[in-house]
Specification:
The protein is an alpha+beta fold. The chain has 19 helices and 22 strands. Strands 2-1-5-4-3 form a 5-stranded antiparallel β-sheet. The N terminus is likely disordered.
């Protein structure tokens, strides 16, 4: 509303006419129209105001307007008048006012600035409407509000308005009730400050999250972003925000949008990606396990035979030992890939982790560089854990060797410690999201080095089986570590700082009961002496040759066949003349499974030891209930072959 003195017109006569007309309109309006000075003094009062409030003009003009305002609304009135004086135009206000007789009533007031001839704000005009007279308009509006509330409450996400002030602070003037579930906070707690929400975003996601907000505010382009947040119970959730921005008069930005919890879909996506990785890795591991292990069988087998031919003091013994050591390390690569893909063989038993480490100490010492010092800090009286001894040895070996390689050529320290920890929701915050255990009691193994360390961006990728970096020591082995820890329902934490070193902390659930011996997979027996004829079937000549030499060393006569078809030709001549058959699983023309079936048809009592580069579980599953006598995994040495034969022919 404009003060009559501020009207601009071509001439004084016409201006006076317009002012008179305007004054007449105001005076005759049924709506309550009045004005106040910046100090809150009432400066005008029409007939509609007299009727609504009960005061005649002479009773209120020139007096403070607080007689119209209940005590609880005084601050509200003061803030609105100040905003008008500062040049803002507040939205209509639904509030309460007082009648002369002391009763209160609901009104809807529209505020406007009053300008003088120089366009300076000299006051504020108010048009007040009695809400009781607006029933026909208010009820449909309230019905619409109720419908919208029901919609907001049914939508499985947060409908919100987010305001970024010019000073960088922010708040949510509106958030639907779903904020209680998704943000774990009441909507009204966000109306002044949204800093609480930013604290829930994971630190590693915060930079990208803030950059998305800044870019959307700068360009006024739609905001789309996904971030991880940590819930009050320590678990990780994925949230996606989509919003449209608009510029506010004060230079701030308001987004109108929607936030949804996409944790379930992200987990499904992660499982699908992981499944694809595992499938690819399984195919790769199968090829390596067959072809590469065939080569390693020739290396290990011949080395073990030559070592028996040479006297213990021979200069060739140390070199043969190095050959065997290198071949076993190469064979471990296949086992690591199988472990990551979930196809590694687990023999679960109660273990004392300290004893397992002590039994492995010599192997650890000779596996690290001479410039590294290995220190132990093993807690006493640890509870047992349920685990596979071979897999845990592999984990500890991988981490210790990685630490040694990270230290490089300089002097360094490798520390290996154990202990017990209780994991609660707070402690869960430091775990990898894909290796986060359930709350409870755990035995931990910690391997630390003071080597080159790992930067934050690389740290998120080191467990990817296909990830490589220029620094040494952390590649495929860590993928296997992660797979083994998850297979034991354990947890994993990694701390690292470039130039200072890395710490891996592994957690395994505490078990009840006593420990079982896990020291030697090949217990000592008296020398074995066999007799009879053995048929060796393998498509690799190297395997046939080295297996035949081992069997002959044990006292057997040997015949060989290059595939299942040739094997059946020899077997059919006299199915009863072979003491047992050493049969490869994967061969051209006629594979091991079909060859085994045909042999059993001709001689149901024939003993067959299966050999394969695959692990025992995958290979033997095809022969369950079919009478398979034994299994030996490639690459094998004389001791392993002797053990397999002894298990089916103990008194040969």
């Amino acid at each position: 509303m404009t003060n009559p003195e501020s009207s601009h017109s071509p001439g004084p006569g016409k201006a006076a006419s317009n002012d008179a007309l305007l004054a007449a309109i105001v005076a005759s309006s049924a709506d309550a129209i009045y004005s106040q000075s910046p100090e809150g003094i009432i400066t005008s009062w029409n007939g509609g105001a007299e009727k609504m409030f009960g005061y005649v003009a002479s009773e209120v003009v020139g007096k403070p307007g607080k007689c119209l305002v209940p005590d609880e609304c005084m601050e509200e009135e003061r803030v609105i008048i100040n905003r008008i004086i500062q040049g803002e135009t507040p939205a209509p206000l639904a509030t309460t006012r007082l009648h002369k007789q002391g009763s209160s009533f609901d009104v809807r007031i529209t505020f406007s600035p009053i300008l003088d001839a120089s366009n300076r704000i000299i006051g504020a005009s108010m048009i007040a409407l009695d809400s009781s007279q607006l029933g026909k308009d208010v009820q449909p509006t309230q019905d619409l509000v109720n419908k919208l509330d029901r919609i907001y409450n049914q939508v499985p996400g947060v409908i919100y308005q987010f305001v970024l002030r010019p000073d960088g602070t922010s708040y949510l003037p509106f958030a639907s009730e779903a904020a209680r579930q998704i943000f774990e906070v009441a909507p009204e707690q966000l109306r002044e400050d949204s800093g609480f929400l930013f604290k829930k975003v994971l630190p590693e996601d915060m930079a990208a999250f803030q950059a998305s907000i800044t870019e959307s505010a700068r360009t006024l382009q739609a905001f789309h972003h996904e971030s991880r947040v940590r819930r009050n119970d320590g678990t990780i959730a994925w949230l996606r925000g989509d919003a449209a921005p608009e510029r506010l008069p004060d230079g701030g930005t308001m987004w109108h949008g929607y936030i949804s919890d996409i944790t379930a879909s992200r987990r499904l996506e992660q499982k699908l990606v992981e499944s694809a990785k595992l499938e690819s890795l399984g195919v790769l591991a199968g090829g390596i396990a067959h072809d590469f292990n065939n080569l390693l069988t020739g290396i290990l087998g011949n080395a073990s035979l030559v070592r028996q031919e040479l006297p213990p003091a021979s200069l060739g013994q140390p070199m043969l030992e190095q050959i065997e050591k290198a071949a076993r390390r190469a064979a471990d690569l296949c086992k690591q890939m199988l472990a990551y893909s979930g196809k590694g063989r687990f023999v679960i038993q109660n273990l004392e982790i300290n004893k397992l480490i002590e039994d492995t100490t010599h192997l650890l010492q000779i596996s690290i560089a001479k410039n590294c010092v290995l220190r132990f800090d093993l807690a006493e009286n640890l509870p047992v854990i349920r685990a596979d001894a071979t897999q845990l040895r592999q984990v500890i070996m991988n981490l210790v060797i990685n630490g040694s390689e990270a230290i490089g050529n300089r002097s360094g320290v490798l520390s290996l410690s154990t202990g017990v920890a209780r994991i609660d929701s707070e402690y869960l915050r430091g775990f990898r999201s894909d290796a986060s255990p359930a709350p409870g009691d755990y035995v931990f193994v910690e391997v630390s080095d003071n080597g080159c360390g790992i930067d934050a961006s690389t740290l998120t990728k080191i467990f990817d089986p296909f990830f490589t970096t220029k620094f040494t020591g952390r590649g495929l082995g860590l993928a296997a570590v992660l797979g083994i820890v998850r297979g034991h329902k354990g947890g994993l934490k990694v701390y690292s700082e470039p130039g200072k070193g890395t710490t891996f902390k592994l957690f395994f659930p505490v078990a009840s009961g006593r420990a079982q011996d896990s020291a030697n997979p090949f217990p000592y027996h008296a020398p074995y002496k066999g007799s009879g004829t053995v048929l060796v079937v393998d498509d690799e000549e190297t395997i046939r040759t080295v297996a035949a030499r081992m069997l002959e060393r044990l006292g057997f006569s040997v015949e060989t066949a290059c595939d299942g078809r040739e094997a059946m030709q020899k077997f059919q001549l006299d199915p009863n003349r072979f003491t047992f058959v050493l049969l490869d699983l994967t061969m051209p023309h006629l594979d091991g499974e079909e060859t085994f079936r045909q042999m059993r048809q001709l001689n149901p009592s024939i003993k067959v030891i299966l050999t394969s580069g695959f692990n025992e579980q995958d290979a033997v599953n095809r022969f369950v209930g079919k009478g398979l006598a034994g299994f030996i995994q490639k690459p094998f040495e004389l001791a392993a072959l002797t053990q397999a034969i002894r298990s089916i022919l103990p008194h040969n």
